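Appendix B. Raw example, untouched.
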Amino acid sequence: MKQKIVATLLVTLHLLVVLGHGRAHSQLHIQPSIWQGMFIAVVIVIGPMLAMVLLWTRLKKIGPVVFLVTMTGSLFFGLTYHFVVPGSDNALHLHNGHWESLFRTTATWLAVIETGAIAWCAWALKRQFLESLK
């Protein structure tokens, strides 16, 4: 039960930060390409929520796998576009300002939350594996 609650809190926190980050994107007129928008919708928003729902059903063993895949994809996407690839989406190249500050802060928090979620998934899957050996 504790495992489900931790995952639910991680997904909820991630979603809240994603919404704040999306708001900063809109205010700064930084629009994703079509494929990026689809990736964001499916992998970054819907995927973690699906994983959370799975954890609360009889398919709970699949939940950590879906969560791991979506958080790994989210982290790779975010690190790439927010901190590596130059462009309007790079948090390190924005000028100072209210929305720019929110953009940088939420980009950083997303990386932290996603890294924590990946670590949680690794722990949950290891625990699941060890229980299956009993």
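End of appendix B.
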